[in-house]
Amino acid sequence: MPTWEGTGIRGNHRIAYEFVVRQLRQMELTQTDTPPVWAYEAEPKELDLLAEALLSDHELSRSEYVTIELMVPEKFILRTAYGAWCELYFSCLETGEISDDGSWLAVDPEQENHETVQAILPHILRSWVVTTKPLRLQHT
Q1: What pTM was computed for the model?
Q2: Do the domain assignments include residue 140?
Q3: Counting Cβ atoms within 10 Å, is residue 4 exposed (0-12), middle (13-18) or buried (19+)?
Q4: Which of 5, 8, 104, 129 qualifies as a FRET site for 111, CA 20 to 30 Å off?
């Protein structure tokens, strides 16, 4: 299991991520206080756009990334709206406080043009890994 010390996450960043852990616990998706794992639900054809949105040009040019396809049991997934989470997160970075109106939890998978869905997991098990592949962007 990951540890907070191993992540290097401190200060207001940690306040935000510990808030997510409390949400996972309240929703009975975990019983631990370990750092959560961020994953994203995306079709293979959307991976380029997602990677370019999440990673800077510097990161993309200096590091090699892989995609990991997971098959995670529903009982371990907290689906959240990426944009609303970012608002909550960046507000916490500025203030050190969480201002939660619940909008980051509002994900409508039936909406045709829904925003990026984060699948926050309490951990990853090896048995959930379906495939791993090098990330090869078409747009860079």
Answers
A1: 0.86
A2: no
A3: middle
A4: 129
Nearest to 69 by CA among 136, 134, 10: 134
The pair phi, psi for residue 100, each rounded to 5°, is -105, 115
User: 92 lies in a domain?
Assistant: yes
Least trusted range by pLDDT, from 17-31, 98-112, 119-133: 98-112
**Residue 57 domain boundaries:** 4-134
Residue in the block written with tokens 């989470």: 85
Residue 118 and residue 85 in contact, taking contact as beta carbons nearer than 8 Å: yes
**Percent of the chain that is helix, strand, coil (3-state, to 5):** 45, 20, 40
Is residue 12 a contact partner of residue 26, using CB atoms and an 8 Å limit? no
pLDDT, tens digit, 9 for 90 and up, residues 6-51: 899 999 999 999 999 999 999 999 999 999 999 998 887 887 788 8
Residue 109: per-residue pLDDT? 60
Locus of tokens 């959307």: 46
* pLDDT attached to residue 106: 79
Domain total in the chain? 1
